[in-house]
Amino acid sequence: MSAIELLSDLQCNGMKWEGEVGLSRKGGAGPSDHKAMTLDGQTLMIPVLNLASQDSPYTGKTDPLTGKVIVSKNQIPVATLSAPARPKFYDLVTADGIPYDQIATLHSHDVLATTVLQHCIRMNGKTTACQFCSIDQSLKSGRALIRKRPDQLAEVAKAAVELDGVTQMVLTTGTPNTPDRGAEILYDSVKAIRAQVDLPIQVQCEPPNDFAWFQKLKDAGAVSIGMHLEAVSDRVRQQIMPGKAEVSLDVYFAAFDAAVKVFGRGQVSTYILAGLGDTQQEIIEMTENLAKRGVYPFVVPFVPIQGTALEHHPKPDPAFMQSLYTQIGSQLRQYGLNSQDTQAGCAKCGACSSLKAYE
Ligand code: SF4
Q1: Which one of 279, 287, 329, 330 is CB 3.0 to 4.6 Å from 358, fit for a cystine?
Q2: Is there a contact between 23 and 326 (Cβ–Cβ < 8 Å)?
């Protein structure tokens, strides 16, 4: 099995951890319950904290002598991985006493990421919430602020660049009850960060009502934007994310086209969670449509996050993911998209998916 096949298998199955997990990510927007691990220069986020990883054939533990991660499959050692060290900026606090790691966290090994508004209009209603999302968990546990101020983000970003060499930043947001869908919060944040530090930033939000926000965000200093479909068929959208499904696919496509005009081909991306119920054909048709428009389809294996409505949902089959990666990789080549050309964001980071290796 090649390094990327092993990482891909680990990402679908997760890993049962023995001992202290150490640096990891629990709750929050987007994929969670995982730990960054590196093999042959490729860093992937591997689920270790959710229920689904507890019945994985893989186990992991830290070797006390080397600090490396020893991975076994059915009790037989199969690989030795490394895990990024705890970043130095995690030890700092703001002048008003807020730990930096409650403001932003390290993703993969060199990405600074945060959810600027840790609240969403849809999160408290059974008929509106996205069933896969754990945006409220880190808030309830006291690990994150509900709203990160622009000056706080700028302070942490500067420290993360200077102390830990982060190379890019991802700013996502829960959706507020305003027509801009969070674009204004992101705009204020990007402006403040870029005034302090030269760091490529991707912003992520739902399509705003007024597409003029794309130019404003770019002028503020954002270099790329993500607007996340999550599921691709109306059937799965209605079932898994009934509130967000009210924003039609047509609205997303209009927003993608407008954003590509501003940010350029490959600087607009979308997250697709494979394993929620969309068929392979549905996903492939959608990724073809997106790639043709210049939108990078960042397809990731769905991680059933503990504490969400989908915590017992089956994990995606690694063979299903590899077949998707192969076909999407060829679409990306056909339409001239490549994560290396993306200036910032999840596609560039690539740690939540093995897609990069198939481009
Ligand atoms: S792909 Fe995106 S969500 Fe995943 S680790 Fe990288 S920055 Fe974070």
Answers
A1: 329
A2: no
